[in-house]
Design a protein that fits this description.
The protein contains 2 helices and 4 strands. With 117 residues, the protein is an alpha+beta fold. The longest helix has 16 residues. The two termini are 18 Å apart.
Length: 117
Amino acid sequence: MLSEGGFTALIPINEVAQSELYRIDSFSSGETSLDSFLHSEAANLHSDHLGHTSLLFHEDFASVVGYITLSNDAIPLKTSEIGDLGLAYEIELPAFPAVKSVASPSIKVFSGRASAN
């Protein structure tokens, strides 16, 4: 499913076709920790509902061209903020629910260091 510019929509990591998994393994952003996360951890965290990783592909590149992982998080509230959230009902939360962008690297397409198919 390619768009006019050759990009796919963001595809959840668990929906990548078996025949396309090699494209994940060949991804390199230049940051070892981000690459390792995608190669070794992202799919497990996704299947355990601890993070949601989506991938972006392009027809001219053999690997994934970018990805983003969102995870559940919480912002701890100060004692003075608990119960004072401005909600229409009373609730005391020790933390405010949040979503965190864990990673969103891409290959170095624009620096000329990525190679096309």
